[in-house]
Amino acid sequence: MQQNRDLLHKDNMLIANSTKVRYNPMVIQSGSGSRLKDDKGRSYLDFGGNWALANLGYDNKNVQAAIQKQLENTSYAGIVSSINEPALLLAEKLVQLMPGDFHKKAWFGLSGSDAAEAAQRMVLASSGKSRILSFVGAMHGTNDTGMGLSGLPGAGGVKYGSHVIKAPFPDPYRSPFPGDSLGLADRCTSFIEDYLFKTICPPSDIAAVFVETVQSDSGDVVPPDNFMPLLRKLCDEHNILLVIDDIKIGLGRTGRMFSYEHYGIEADLILLGKSLGGGLPLSAVVGRADVLDSGFAGFTTSGNAACCIAGFETLNEIERLNLVEHSAIAGKYLGDKLASTLGDYEIVGDIRGRALIQGIDLVQDKISKLPNRQAASSIVYRCWELGLLLYYVGNSGNVLEITPPLVLTADEIDEGTSILDQAFNDYMDGKIDQAKVAEFSGWFV
Ligand SMILES: Cc1ncc(COP(=O)(O)O)c(C=O)c1O
Fold this sequence. Notes:
The protein is an alpha/beta fold.
């Protein structure tokens, strides 16, 4: 395939490798709806949404217009030492949207990682406690705090955060308690309560539990339905705050505005980011005012007016375009289509997800369930050659992840699934050039 050698060479020479997680040599030139164009004018259907960033697609006119209008006034209005109206509009909208009848406020930052760090600082300051509980397989960011809160085997996720206790996450396909999958959620929460709390980690030390309701980077793991209610109960009984990380799957992706709404529970804090800024860098922590009023966590650019108006307009567009409902319907169609098209391949162990986050767990064979990372990297690369973008994730780097823009249509689902089918066929027939695939190591090395 023809590539722009000049840009690839410059990328090699000029851009820090520490920022790179590459699956193919994609050069992005422009985007529209759920499609991206490269510098050669070649069009790609995007099943990855730039890591769940592009929920509204790549050219939402109302968000663009709102940003432009704000830039004509000023882009330099932060909230650290002054007030700007876009930040207030966004905060008001977010506290209205968040379920729960208690006094809420919003904190603003620029990336998911800084939201996780701010949340950690604020829960420690407000509770006066010293430790946090999170889960094996969790992803909460790539700064040192985020990595400390995370439980990923790759990406340095276990190097930091000696104050963070990691508990087993109830993965129904690869259970942390093999042979005991009945009552898996209870096994995990009682491991915390009856074992961790009674040995190395008294609950009185724990300020908060950080959790994703679908663990995406560990392989799109959907816990049993009773897990989140059990976790909420455990937090209530031990006076621990529940922090839901909805950075990747919040704002409609799971078919609800916030992912934990599936379980009829309340969160104390929600972390938001990625798609919130409609393409601009923006993150938020929303929740209990007494917690958000504790300690200090701010940047000079926090809550700047351009990003906040983009966030406000993004939320308006989610409502105007009915994207939460659309996500539920399109996600069901996508899940069914993936199962009927790909489910019979011997290398497909499991297909799982919630609405527009889906994972395809690739294995050596359906009996052994041994992770098949080579299949994942090969199929992702081949899909790019065939005009479909997606990534692979997972504790073993073997899960194809699908997190498309929420504006994805049924026709696009058919198109993308048939490209995946072709790539699976090519992999099974040994037709994918492994030398080319080997140039791209993905996320988990
Ligand atoms: C669930 C979750 N939390 C936090 C983060 C960190 O967000 P960011 O990369 O914007 O710092 C990510 C990023 O992938 C994520 O998926």
